[in-house]
């Protein structure tokens, strides 16, 4: 299949398809990101999954070996607790030293780090949960923005505006390459996003069942059984909303928020990242804060990431053909 989907995003990243595999805490490692690269999209190794710069650098080097010369990037997430500037700078040292050309930032403004990244020739994609934040990032000089709607796994922001609205507003308002994410998992939806005027899509949840995701197969088998109603929001009272797999942790946290709204210290023990990692390792997802979006409804089987992307691409092509009947 020839590249039929050239956009400002494929031009920026040098990819075949206008699809970005967003950072996935604990899970977006070299194996996954290199698989994305080989399949014709771009993925981002998630820096916060690595305890220090040296570990991140080893992962970057491993990804380069596996990516067969294709582009890839590193994600710097500055939430849930504001990541200290020194830690971010430590990651940036290794990103620059490792010759990485693309960075995805999220969680808070990337302003303080843009001069260093740009001086090193790195293109910065900033991910935001609202048009307001995306406009701000555009004004700061980022190279591309990604807006995620309320349906997304992870951090949908506090306003919880759906992706269809966000895309329609942003397509007309943003003047740099831009992506829409949140609830996207099919080729028809990719084409709908492009129709809204954005240049590509960000996907997280749909790719969680890929073979290259190291989480336990039991977890992936569970995801395949889930529907769009099986996620829950939590941490709204501390203005750090997270959409996650509905389990005992989302129940407990929501109960605590009803009685002790706004007090993160009582929630912290339940949402600790280590518990989530343990769930991925064991496959027992009955507890732990496990980011998950409504697009889990589209996860229908375990298979290589390249195969998932191939199926999305085939649907993009058939949708384009089907829409031509309106010509
Ligand atoms: C398990 C999981 C972990 C995530 N971790 C991060 C992260 O560490 N940093 C980040 O910027 N985004 C993170 N995200 C958000 C994704 O990069 C992406 O923006 C989002 O998944 C898109 O919406 P979707 O889940 O509906 O596909 C995560 C999402 C999931 C599902």
Automatic annotation (TrEMBL):
Name one molecular function that GO assigns to this entry. Answer: nitronate monooxygenase activity
Q: Does the keyword Amino-acid biosynthesis apply?
A: no
**SUPFAM superfamilies documented for this protein:** Inosine monophosphate dehydrogenase (IMPDH)
Annotated signal sequence is none
Known Pfam families for this protein? NMO
Q: Which UniProt keywords apply?
A: Flavoprotein, FMN, Monooxygenase, Oxidoreductase
Q: Is Cell inner membrane set as a keyword in this record?
A: no
Coiled coil region boundaries: none
Q: What is this protein called?
A: Nitronate monooxygenase
The organism named in the record is Cupriavidus lacunae
């Amino acid at each position: 299949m020839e590249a039929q989907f050239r956009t400002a995003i494929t031009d920026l990243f040098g990819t075949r398809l206008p699809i970005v595999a967003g950072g996935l805490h604990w899970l977006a490692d070299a194996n996954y990101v290199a698989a994305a690269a080989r399949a014709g999209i771009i993925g981002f190794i998630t820096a916060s999954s690595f305890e220090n710069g040296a570990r991140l650098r080893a992962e970057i080097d491993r990804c380069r070996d596996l990516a067969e010369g294709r582009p890839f990037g590193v994600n710097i997430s500055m939430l849930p607790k504001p990541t200290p500037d020194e830690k971010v700078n430590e990651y940036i040292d290794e990103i620059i030293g490792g010759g990485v050309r693309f960075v995805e930032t999220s969680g808070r403004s990337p302003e303080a780090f843009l001069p260093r990244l740009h001086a090193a020739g790195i293109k910065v994609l900033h991910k935001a949960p609202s048009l307001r934040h995306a406009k701000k990032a555009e004004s700061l000089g980022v190279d591309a923005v990604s807006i995620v709607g309320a349906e997304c796994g992870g951090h949908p922001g506090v306003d919880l505006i759906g992706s269809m609205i966000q895309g329609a507003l942003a397509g007309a308002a943003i003047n740099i390459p831009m992506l829409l994410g949140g609830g996207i998992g099919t080729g028809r939806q990719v084409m709908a996003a492009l129709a809204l005027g954005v240049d590509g899509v960000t996907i997280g949840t749909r790719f969680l069942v890929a073979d290259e995701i190291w989480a336990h197969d039991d977890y992936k088998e569970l995801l395949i059984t889930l529907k769009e109603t099986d996620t829950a929001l939590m941490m709204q009272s501390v203005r750090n909303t997270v959409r996650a797999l509905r389990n005992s942790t989302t129940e407990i946290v929501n109960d605590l928020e009803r009685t002790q709204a706004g007090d993160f210290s009582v929630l912290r023990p339940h949402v600790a990242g280590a518990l989530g990692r343990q769930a991925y390792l064991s496959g027992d997802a009955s507890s732990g804060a496990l980011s998950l979006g409504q697009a889990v409804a589209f996860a229908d089987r375990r298979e290589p990431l390249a195969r998932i992307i191939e199926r999305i691409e085939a649907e993009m092509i058939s949708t384009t053909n089907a829409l031509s009947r309106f010509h």
